Amino acid sequence: MYICTEFFGGDFLNQNSMQSSTFRPFLTIFFLSFFTMASMSAKESDKDKPFDAKELIFHHITDSHSFHVAGDFSVPLPVILWTENGLVTFMSSEFHHDVDGKTIVEKKGLKLVNLHEKIYQLDSGSSAVDFDAESHPTNAKRPLDLSITKNVFTMFLSMIVIMLLFITAARSYKKSDSNMPSGIGKFLEPIIVFIRDEVAIPNIGEHHYKKYMPYLLTIFFFIWLNNIFGLIPFFPFNSNLSGNIAFTMTLAVITFLITLFSSKKYYWKHMLWMPGLPIPMKLFLAPIEIIGMFVKPIALMIRLFANITAGHVIVLSLISLVFILNTVWVAPLAVLFTVFISVIEVLVVAIQAYIFTMLSALYFGQALEAEH
């Protein structure tokens, strides 16, 4: 269901300038698919168990060890574990789509289970997972997980795509006699110039911006591209990398470290002993400024994580209305709102990349500020 709605949302943005007759077939196919899948899912939920919207949403926004394609078909990814018996590797398909710990994989004398996309090692002598009152495993522990999960795979893919884009653009400049790019270079040049003229120079200054441009460009395209991948509903995309708090935290920490190592004397003087103020006020403001230094990267981390996750959650919540109310007649309203949110998401993924880049440049500029 999520696949159909997000696919149509992306197509609608690209086709909205055409005549209605052009995309009417897409509407027809989309609604037929929606109603068919809704009916099938409703029947399955009636037979098996009541529909759980929370389970559906978290299943789609969390990381996993395989790419679900359709039905029971999925693309497995390598599981890489460092255990007490050394390195253990195998494909996630050995778990047979089981996420409740019922399928036990035995490797190097160890019994491994998959509990909601987290790999656990059973204690010796155990043949099944035991849970406490809060559904936590009591006879299993987690080994060091170095697996290539869906988010990790998408991150590597985005890195390869970015390298190919910029290498191709650089070659187009090199081949041109007039220093005018061609092909993909024409698309990238306005974006690079925008980051330079509207983000780097105003916030960092003309004398220092050049050495920060590689990082700012990398962080902008890296976040933007991964956000776009999260909107594409089919393999090898459909991940939620920017909706992973560890990913956004890593980016925020890198910005924080660059800010610290770029800082000058006046930056710390302004923070610890603000000039031009009475001593009691300096003592009052110094702790606030120190706290603010750590709050900035935390705000970067949470802003990107929350905005990207919220978009996926809203789309899935709208689709879940069909199953919560147990009728397909609410589907047209759910589809309309889903298309509207999907169109907004296309804008949000670029805006969030821009905001993260702009705030990073602003923090660099504050650290480089000279005493006047």
Q: How would you portray this structure in words?
A:
This protein is α+β, with helices and mostly antiparallel strands and 372 residues long. It folds into 2 domains: 83 residues, no CATH class; 217 residues, no CATH class. Helix content is 61%, strand content 10%. The protein has 10 helices and 9 strands. The strands form 3 sheets. It has a 4-stranded antiparallel sheet with strand order 5-6-7-8, with no helix packed on it. A hairpin with a 2-residue loop joins strand 3 and strand 4. It is globular and about 70 Å long. The N terminus is likely disordered.
Poorly predicted spans? 1-47
What's the N-to-C terminus distance? 59 Å
Query: What number of structural domains do the residues give?
Result: 2
> Widest sheet: strand order?
5-6-7-8
Helix content: 55-70%
Helix-strand category: alpha+beta
Count of extended strands = 9
Tertiary shape:
globular
H-E order:
HHHEEEEEEEEEHHHHHHH
Overall mean confidence score, pLDDT: 82
Number of helical regions: 10
Radius of gyration: 25 Å
